[in-house]
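[Automated response] Your request has been received and processed.

Submitted sequence:
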Amino acid sequence: MLTGIIIAVAVVCFILLISIRQVSEYERGIRFNFGKFQKVLNPGWHIVVPIFQSYQKIDVRVKVVDVPEQDAITKDNVTVKINAVIYFNIFDAKKAMLSVEHCNYAVTQLAQTTMRNLVGSVTLDELLTDRERISNEICTIVDKATDEWGVKIQNVELKDIALPTEMQRVIAKVAEAEREKAAVITKASGELEASKNLSLAAQQLAGSPGALHLRTLSTINDVSSDQSNTIIFAIPIEVLNAFGNNNSLTNNVVNALTKTKKSTKKSK
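Generated structure:
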């Protein structure tokens, strides 16, 4: 009798030991009784009686799924190859287990279809320049569709957009033309600004009789820095008059030049 009790206790202990199941912090367990859903198992140790009960684990961490490259046609009939990456996690383990088979595969297929449909509704320029908005729209659409599966879409990022070789050359030509246009506009703006400054400088020089002469001397000084150059500079009388009629040196130069002119005329 005692031996039978010991054996029974040993069997019960053995069944209890093999019935212990551990659910980690990043997991949730789904326990079934005779194939019917019973409850969601939180992290920790749980008893799952063999034969009568079964359980499966669901990973609730954020998963990264690479959407394979897809051929799509934009709204303006340009064929592109596009791929993306999806970040999602399971927020309801019960729905993820009971509502959909192979959750990761289902999310990937839904993202592929949504991406092709959305790319077909935008032009190539919008696809290239407004990538963030398109990614957000894909994320919103897929997230709404996967709520019934207990899946939360965290983010969708378009990784790469491959264009045909002919289209790449066309885009390069357009970019080159835009740069040339900007260069011409910048050069014209510079010339306009320079002409305004020259006009203002001319007005200021015209208002001061000696300013032009000083500017001329400054230019000669800059040019004469190279000793290999020979400069011949003719000074008109009007420039000397700019120093004033009271300047004795100026008067002497003017008188000498006048006498020279008169003597030249008499000799003729």
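Summary generated for your ticket: Residues 264-268 have pLDDT under 50 and may be disordered. The chain has three domains: 2-59, 63-163, 211-252.
If you did not submit this request, please reply to this message.
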